[in-house]
From TrEMBL:
Origin superkingdom: Bacteria
Keyword Heme: no
The protein's enzyme class: hydrolase
Organism, as annotated: Arthrobacter alpinus
Keyword Magnesium recorded: no
Catalytic activity: Cleavage of hydrophobic, N-terminal signal or leader sequences from secreted and periplasmic proteins
Protein EC: 3.4.21.89
TM ranges: 12-34
Protein name, as recorded: Signal peptidase I
Length: 219
């Protein structure tokens, strides 16, 4: 009778370990194929995303539609944004994957920014009226952080095929494509580096809401 009980306990623990392993495999599959959660540590995308927010990112957001001007994208900055530095230290403007919560090594090369230029666009700052210009047309940016100007840095960039020009909504504190104008690649990001787009703010509780690809939010 005792031996049967021991055998039963062994089978029970094996089942528990198998169940836990399957759960981790399932979560890893979900995170790498469909959705992942990222922590926002900086203020560069305010007022849309606040420091301390946790956002759900869809990895399939652009599977059936192209990336367009105005879209908010999460992307891997290796080979482009990786040299970014600020007074707060290297990679101060990056975001952190939820994998860090599970004890895994996080990828600190991930960023979230807004697309201001796609292939064929010429992005310039600023127009005579102080607005960002895209293909010669002044653009009113309703998503800008209150009180921020489109850019304190003047620039004019032509975006080649397969590249994106990206900027944060809180322009006065954002490290973005403008910060890399003199670096290799000129601040342009490859579309192949795009991971996905934020689709919801999931934490803190008071800020749970949907986020659309164009960066508008529904509280």
């Amino acid at each position: 009778m005792t031996q049967a009980k021991r055998q039963s306990r062994k089978l029970g623990w094996r089942f528990v370990f198998l169940a836990v392993a399957l759960i981790f495999v399932f979560l890893a599959l979900v995170r790498n194929v469909w959705v992942d959660v990222y922590y926002i540590p900086s203020e560069s995308m305010e007022p849309l995303l606040l420091a301390g927010d946790r956002v759900l990112v869809s990895r399939t957001a652009f599977a059936t539609q192209p990336i367009e001007r105005g879209d908010v994208v999460v992307f891997d900055g290796r080979g482009s944004f990786r040299p970014l530095k600020s007074g707060a230290g290297d990679l101060a403007d990056g975001i952190v994957a939820a994998g860090q919560w599970l004890g895994f090594v996080p990828n600190n090369n991930v960023y979230v920014k807004r697309v201001l230029g796609v292939a064929g666009d010429t992005v310039k700052c600023c127009s005579a009226s102080g607005l960002l210009e895209i293909n010669g047309v002044p653009v009113t940016e309703s998503y800008l952080y209150p009180g921020d100007e489109p850019s304190a840095l003047t620039f004019e960039v032509s975006v080649p095929q397969g590249k994106l020009w990206l900027m944060g909504d809180h322009r006065s504190v954002s490290l973005d494509s403008r910060s890399l104008l003199g670096a290799p690649g000129g601040g342009l990001i490859s579309t192949s580096r795009v991971i996905g787009s934020p689709i919801a703010n999931v934490w803190p509780l008071g800020r749970i809401h949907a986020i659309y690809s164009d960066g508008t939010a529904l509280p």
